């Protein structure tokens, strides 16, 4: 029996960091639908070209096609012993398909990890996030001891102030995701999360699979709690 996990959480809850830790400890890959859709652009088969065309035209990708993309990924050898699903399923229909697909393989979802974070903290984590070229992350509100930062006004006030941050030890200028610089974009991502995730939480709660972890705790504390949840789920 493999280890199949779903990880959920609003932006800033630390899904990526915790998924990497799970991957390292249990040897199962993180499967992100965002990555899967981007990978369609590197393929030349008929199915991938169809998906790419729909994405380029702004069409929504159907549950059927999304499920097929996931099915193809789960059929790869590195997913034989399980995966961490991030960003999938997004609808109860996708969740039902996944359950049936895994059952056909003699597998099941072991746990749904819900990283719980209040929305104010979620906003601060996204809006204040900066990182080095190697991906080390800092935050001007919660993890700023090693950085220098300030908001710089546009000379003609034509644009909102720009966040400038540097690493104290090296002077490296830190990067900021473009969508993190827009409060409106952050709020839209939070709204989308709420709209898509609440029905799924209810769906999986009915099945007794949701395991909530307080994501406001330190990364290591959250990680230890997740490990305890996974180890308990594996034994059932």
Question: What attributes characterize this protein structure?
Answer:
236 residues, alpha/beta, 2 domains, five-stranded parallel β-sheet, two-stranded antiparallel ribbon, 19% strand
Describe this protein's structure.
The protein is α/β, with parallel strands linked by helices. The chain has two domains: 3-118 and 195-234, P-loop containing nucleotide triphosphate hydrolases (Rossmann fold, 3-Layer(aba) Sandwich); 129-175, no CATH class. Helix content is 44%, strand content 19%. The strands form three sheets. The chain has a five-stranded parallel β-sheet, with helices on both faces. The protein has a two-stranded antiparallel ribbon with strand order 5-6. Strands 7-8 form a two-stranded antiparallel sheet. A hairpin with a 5-residue loop joins strand 5 and strand 6.
Question: In terms of topology, how is this protein built?
Answer:
Blueprint lengths: L2 E7 L5 H12 L3 E3 H7 L6 H11 L6 H12 L7 E5 L5 H13 L6 E6 L2 H9 L1 E3 L5 E3 L7 E6 L9 E6 L15 H24 L3 E5 L4 H16 L2
Parallel strand pairs: 1-3, 1-4, 2-3, 4-9
Antiparallel strand pairs: 5-6, 7-8
Number of strands: 9
Low-confidence stretches: none
Radius of gyration: 19 Å
Describe the biggest sheet?
5 strands, parallel
As a percent range, the share of strand residues is 15-25%
Question: What would the average pLDDT be, to the nearest integer?
Answer: 94
Q: What is the CATH domain class of the largest domain?
A: Alpha Beta
Treating each run of at least 4 consecutive H or I residues as one helix, how many helices? 8
* CATH homology superfamily of the largest domain: P-loop containing nucleotide triphosphate hydrolases
Strand order of the largest sheet: 2-3-1-4-9
Distance between the termini: 11 Å
Broad structural category: alpha/beta
Counting structural domains, the number is 2
